[in-house]
Amino acid sequence: MTGWRARLGLIVPSSNTAAEIEFDEYAPEGVSIHTARMPLESVTVGALDAMSDRALECAELLAHADVDAIAYVCTTGSLLHGPGFDAELEKELASAADCPAVATALSVDRALEALGVERIAVRTPYIGELNDRKREYFEAAGYEVVSIEGRGIEENVAIGALAPEDAYRQVRGSVAADTHADAVFVSCTNYRTFPAIEPLEDDLGLAVVTSNGATLWDAYRAAGVTSEGLGRLFESG
């Protein structure tokens, strides 16, 4: 039987080409991944806002697959309206699908809390306007953002074309100076990061949380399964 241990439902932007690959590659035995898509081509405030209107429909469709938990796999889309919007989104998705639901922004918050993090260095592929929203969100949630830097990319398929090596270089080339950070957060569920997490933690001596890593960790918790192999976060339980 498919997903005899757990079935995870993902709600992803239509132009996301990274999340399903990373989730599937790191799924433990008996866990299957099932996806619904919301329309998005460019990563802008207006496009992200419009995209979220389709989230509940996606959750209802995933319920047809009898999933055990749902993840809204979009960082900025789940923090766009500040703390509180993410929790309400999780509540609405859980009701629509009749199963637990997590949203990436709140998953990252839970991951940072689990690691005891207070100060973060943030690296993204985004344009400045979205980085500003991200800083506002994490500062309102009680974190000190010691630095935030993006690549200035707006087209989502261009973000998806980045490799884990690009994530490694972006972080390794700029975070060493952020001596006051407790952890690095690499944002965007369309930014492939999994192979870079442990090398970055080894080389920087800091915890590294990524959008997909935090979402996967949180979704597993919601579904009642455990997994290993993605750095300090997954070791934290």
- Please state the overall shape, judged from the principal axes of the Cα atoms: globular
- The oligomeric state of the chains shown is single chain
Mean pLDDT: 91
SS content category: alpha/beta
Q: What do these coordinates show?
A:
The chain has 237 residues and is α/β, with parallel strands linked by helices. Helix content is 45%, strand content 18%. It has 12 helices and 8 strands. The strands form 2 sheets. The protein has a 4-stranded parallel β-sheet with strand order 2-1-3-4, with helices on both faces. Strand 7, helix 10 and strand 8 form a beta-alpha-beta unit. Helix 6 crosses helix 11. The longest helix has 13 residues. It is globular, with a radius of gyration of 16 Å. It starts with 5 loop residues before the first strand and ends with a helix.
